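Sharing in case it's useful to others searching the archive later.

Someone asked me privately for the predicted structure of Tubulin/FtsZ GTPase domain-containing protein, so I'm posting the question and my answer publicly. Question first, with the sequence:
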Amino acid sequence: RCQVANEGITRLLGKVDTLIIIPNDRLLDLCDQKTGVDNAFKLADDVLRHGVQAIA
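And my answer, the predicted structure tokens:
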């Protein structure tokens, strides 16, 4: 799984100006075991939005 992810990153780097990589472990730190899938994706969206806003 990690190898596939790294290959995807390598392919993307040649096609984009900026690539934001957020490790899944970082996202897991924001959730607890009671967090539902929908809320987990909302948290991930928030992290990505804040990262993009910081760059823009």
